[in-house]
Amino acid sequence: MIKHTEISNEELRKLIKGRSIAMAGNERLKIYGELDCKSGKRMKKQNRVFFLTEEEAIKEGFRPCGNCLKERYKNWR
User: Fold this and answer.
1) What angle do CA 54, 14, 38 make, to 5 degrees?
2) Which of 13, 36, 54, 60 is the most core-located residue (most Cβ within 10 A)?
3) Distance of alpha carbon 11 from alpha carbon 19, whole angstroms
4) The pTM is what?
């Protein structure tokens, strides 16, 4: 898990462009979703975290986003 506040914007862009980062999440709410999710784009930088894989997000105790991952959210629920 990579905290947004602990990485530079340049470094973050490189990881996203190189497809090293697959998912983003809200650390406070324990929700993860796709990088282009409308809900995720609105969260505060201090709450945003990034994951290398979806499995990493699940292992860290995060649940799927009900907006961008509807099917996975329904199965989780």
Assistant:
1) 55
2) 54
3) 12
4) 0.88
